[in-house]
Write a structure and sequence with these properties.
Layout: H1 3-18, H2 22-34, H3 36-58, H4 61-67, H5 69-93, H6 96-99, H7 108-121, H8 123-131, H9 143-168, H10 171-179, H11 181-204
Length: about 200
C-alpha cells in the first residue's frame, strides 16, 4: 500500500475514532466507575469490535449490505436498540452514583463486554466502514494490504481510547468527574437515547 494512501486511511480512521459518540461515553463511564484499568480495557475491546467491522469490510461487507438492504436495516435497528438500553441504564444510575461510589462501580469484564458490544452495535460505525473504508478496498488487493487496513483501524481506535482513559484517570480529573457523576450519567443517557432515535428515524423517515 502506497504511503500516501495509508496516510489518507489513517486520517479517516483517526477522525472516526475522535468523533464524539457512544464510544467516548462508554470509556468515560468505565473510567469514572473503576479508574484507569476498566477504561483502558473498554478502549482495547472497543478496538476489537472496530477490527471486526474492518475485517468484514475488506471481505466485502459493503457489497453484502447493498445486496441485502433488509440485513443492513436489521443490524442497524438492533444496534439502535442496544444504544437505547445503555442510555436508559445511564439515566437510572443518575443521582445515586453521586452519593454511593459503588453504584457506578465497574469491572474489567464488564468493560470488555460493553466495549465490544458498543462497537458492534454502533450504527455510525457500520455506515463509516461501508461509506468510507470500503473505498480503499478493491478486488485485486493483496492479503497483506487488507491486513494493513484492518490493523490500522484497530490500532488507531484502540490508541485513541486508551489515551482518553489514561487522561481521564488522572487523580484530579477523575475526582472532578466523580463529583459530577450524576450529571455525566444523565448527559450520557440522553446522548445515547437521542442517537438511537436518530438512527431509527433516519431509516424510516
Amino acid at each position: 500500500m502506497p504511503i500516501s494512501l495509508w496516510l489518507s486511511l489513517a486520517a479517516i480512521c483517526a477522525a472516526g475514532a475522535m468523533s464524539p459518540g457512544p464510544s467516548l461515553a462508554l470509556v468515560l463511564r468505565h473510567t469514572l466507575g473503576g479508574g484507569r484499568a476498566p477504561g483502558v480495557v473498554a478502549g482495547l475491546f472497543h478496538a476489537l469490535g472496530v477490527g471486526f467491522y474492518a475485517l468484514l469490510t475488506v471481505l466485502g461487507l459493503g457489497a453484502l449490505m447493498a445486496r441485502f438492504p433488509l440485513l443492513f436495516e436489521g443490524v442497524t435497528v438492533a444496534g439502535a436498540g442496544y444504544l437505547a438500553w445503555l442510555g436508559v441504564k445511564a439515566l437510572r444510575a443518575g443521582r445515586a452514583a453521586a452519593f454511593d461510589p459503588q453504584t457506578a462501580a465497574t469491572t474489567r469484564r464488564q468493560a470488555a463486554r460493553e466495549g465490544v458490544l458498543v462497537a458492534l452495535a454502533n450504527p455510525k460505525l457500520i455506515l463509516f466502514f461501508i461509506a468510507l473504508l470500503s473505498q480503499f478496498v478493491h478486488p485485486e488487493m493483496s492479503a497483506a494490504a487488507r491486513a494493513i487496513i484492518v490493523a490500522t483501524a484497530m490500532i488507531i481506535d484502540g490508541a485513541w481510547y486508551v489515551l482518553v482513559a489514561v487522561a481521564l484517570s488522572q487523580s484530579r480529573v477523575l475526582e472532578w468527574l466523580r463529583l459530577r457523576s450524576h450529571w455525566i450519567n444523565r448527559a450520557t443517557g440522553v446522548i445515547l437515547i437521542g442517537l438511537a432515535l436518530r438512527v431509527v428515524w433516519g431509516l424510516w423517515a
